[in-house]
Fold this protein.
Amino acid sequence: MNQRDNILAQVLTVPSLPVAAVKVISVLQKPHAELCEIARVINHDPGLATNALRLANSAMYGGQRKIDTIDMAVARLGVRRMLDLVVSSVVKPFAMTPVQGYDLPPGMLWLHSVAVACGAEELGKLLKIDVPSCAFTCGLLIDVGKNVLSTYLEVDGQAIRHEAFEQHVSFEQAERHVLGIDHAEVGAALLKHWGLPDALVAAARWHHEPSNCPPEHQALIDLVHASDQICTLSGIGTGSDGSNYKPCEATMARLKIDVHVIEATMCRIVERLDALEDILGQTSERN
Amino acid sequence: MDWPRIERVLMPVQVGSSTREGIRVAGIGEMLVSNDVREILVTYSLGSCVGVSVFDPEAGVGGLIHCMLPSSKIEADKAVKRPCMFVDTGVIALLQAVMDLGAIGSRMTIKVAGAGSPMDQVGRFKIGERNMTTFRKVLWKNGLMLAAEDVGGTEPRTMSLYMGLGRTTIRKNGSEGEL
């Protein structure tokens, strides 16, 4: 078995997501998801129910009236935020682990993921374009492949960094040269293994090569790619890979992104992260 | 010689947090000042952001800031809340804070790191260069000299100011060196 196959086999050993979470995510993906159906599924998972109530009563969403039932929490948060909440709840423990091959201490990858998620939404607002409903969730998930690869990068991290920085190739290309696979493909394999919807799998798979993605996901993946580049450049939750990635010019042209949009997005991401701190908790010993 | 007066910034300033004993960390848009020889001031993950260290060996006073964007004019209301996020308001706030602790401009050693960029970019992502241009303008306007810099490229940097000796170091690609 070559190293690529070995890594893909490793992906299949990652524990599955809780059944309730997969069920909620699948209900939330329906175009006309019924709030009562979502509430019913969430009610069966104490962890998700607690998080939903916490978020609904947080400073960001809290109204004057205290929310104490899941039906009310779902109504206040809406379908899009419920999807973000559920994915955050199930993926955060995974993403909070240290990613040693990338020199990321506990929480740094999660910080980066949340920043990319917020950035995708903020970019959409700044550019006055419709943000696909799962953009935030996609942002949370694009780099989960790093968690799996870090097991291997503990051994090969130096070789990949050398290839990337000395040979001047992008970090994901260096991963492919050294390991036979990059973190984007590994992440997509993991999300597929977890049974998550196609859009989320595609965003993870193509977030460094947005021009190769299926056309139906182009708008989504353009936003996620641009946000990832902006967060990486600004150093939010970045590891030893730094900003050693290539922004896709075609994406930047499609979105009409200029330096002022990038700066405004950076500013808004930091503001969003500040506002989310009481929900996310202290994300890392760094930053 | 009369040292140019640095314009005061009457704004709240985000102060970095303490982690392990003696090590204090400035996050994005935060600054730290110290006159304690036991302390190490650190800022991590400098990408296109700039980290600036300032040290007056005679007063034993130093400071460190992590600025993200060049100009506060981009979001004036945010600059009021977070002046250290921007180079133009943040560096002034840092200079003011170390001077309040007894530092004097003519004795200061000022160093800068970061200002990185992604690969193969033609202009859209040149935030790092814009940060450096603004930083140099701030120094020039206040008659201050830059002692050392480690800027550009795609590698992330960690900047540390060791208050005991006034050393500034940069850690990148797994090794730490003097700046």
Observations:
- The radius of gyration of chain B is 15 Å.
